[in-house]
Design goal:
24% of the residues lie in helices and 27% in strands. By secondary structure, it is an alpha/beta fold. The protein is globular and about 45 Å long. Helix 3 links the parallel strand 3 and strand 4. The two termini are 17 Å apart. The protein has a single domain, classed as Dihydrofolate Reductase, subunit A (3-Layer(aba) Sandwich). The strands form 2 sheets. Strands 1, 3, 4, 5, 6, 7, 9, 10 and 11 form a 9-stranded mixed beta sheet that branches. Strands 2-8 form a two-stranded antiparallel ribbon. The protein has 7 helices and 11 strands. Bound molecules: folic acid.
Length: 225
């Protein structure tokens, strides 16, 4: 379809491509890794052009979107969801069931408790479509944040052209896995260097491994045409 927004996947995975276990993450809380996720998904890329008029300045409220499957939504601690400063979009085959379970009115507002709820849609294409028309707010980047089935479906879409991967350098028991070995050249994916990652995320990226407790990890970027 004409000018659809590019999708970027963000995930952390073990050497076996494990991403989840028992409805959550496989590893104990990695503060620096989670902080990376939050910063990078929130940051709005500075636009190459400057506002043309004073009315543009007032309306230039940009926000990134995070698209997730229902199980990923369930996995986020209730106090952290919807993920703040991002447009949250939840994909579920049971939209009305999800709304009922999460106290949401039809237009995405939480019925009790002040905060705005997520946008709820029935498919990944519907999620992408929902980004076109968001209440005056312009969606800058669209991040796909899981889980396994949403990542797998997104990898099959031509608009998915980047993966921001945190390589966890040790194994944990997992029951949810990422479908593609990006390093193995599968699907036309190629790793690009640290400098390209810094440019894309808009911040400095540590060279090599970050160590947190007894686990090391590395931030990587993969691209395809
Ligand atoms: N990508 C990466 N790199 N690491 C992850 O842990 C990760 N997790 C998910 C998707 N992509 C990822 C899905 N799971 C929160 C919790 C689970 C989750 C995603 C996000 C969450 O609570 N995030 C808060 C920060 C909370 C905190 O600071 O402790 C947020 O504001 O993003």
């Amino acid at each position: 379809s004409p000018s659809t927004i590019p999708l970027t996947l963000i995930l952390a995975a073990t050497p076996s491509l494990g991403i989840g276990r028992a409805g959550g993450l496989p590893w104990p809380m990695l503060k620096k890794e989670m902080a990376w996720f939050a910063r990078v998904t929130k940051r709005v890329a500075s636009s190459p052009t400057s506002p043309q008029s004073s009315s543009d300045v007032a309306t230039a409220q940009k926000i990134n979107a995070v698209i997730m499957g229902r199980k990923t939504w369930d996995s986020i601690p209730p106090r952290f969801r919807p993920l703040k400063d991002r447009l949250n979009v939840v994909v579920t085959r049971d939209v009305s069931g999800f709304r009922a379970a999460n106290n949401l009115s039809k237009d995405g507002d939480e019925v009790e408790g002040g905060k705005e709820g997520p946008v709820v849609v029935g498919s990944l294409p519907a999620a992408i479509e929902a980004l076109r028309s968001e209440g005056g707010r312009q969606v800058s980047r669209a991040w796909v944040i899981g889980g396994a089935s949403i990542y797998a479906e997104a990898l099959g879409l031509k608009e998915t052209n980047r993966v921001v991967l945190t390589k966890i350098k040790r194994e944990y028991e997992c029951d949810a896995f990422f479908a593609v070995d990006l390093e193995g050249g599968e699907g036309g994916w190629r790793r690009v260097g640290r400098r390209a990652l810094e440019e894309w995320v808009g911040e400095e990226v540590p060279e090599g491994e970050v160590v947190e407790g007894d686990v090391a990890f590395e931030f990587c970027l993969f691209e395809r045409d």
